[in-house]
Amino acid sequence: WLKLAENLHRINDPARVGAWLVTTTKRESLALIRARSRYESVDVTLLDLPDETGDGPAEQVLRLETITEVAEAFALLSERCRELLRRLVVESESYQRISSDLAMPVGSIGPTRIRCLAMLRRHLEEAADVPR
Fold first, then answer.
1. Which in 55, 74, 104, 121 has the greatest CB count within 10 A?
2. What is this structure's pTM?
């Protein structure tokens, strides 16, 4: 519907709006499928997560659901973002090491990290908007 609203000025025959919507929906769906196929899926069931919280079953389920949601959103990031965030957060590597390994100027690591985290946040917010 947003595409229709953006392109109302291009609709010459109002009787063809239905066909236009069908065609546009197909194209947008295919574009989304192509975009998502570029991302590597992550099987979160293979993660070995230690239970250090001592929480009860409800808290453990909530924690596992949260980890699953973050892992799914993380899998939607580009490979470069996943690698950068993994090296910064999990490996705690220095900017100099990341710079040389990823052929990235040291000065662009921080801004890239911010963009990657913003994209991760956007994926998490989009997932929260989708009813399950």
1. 74
2. 0.54
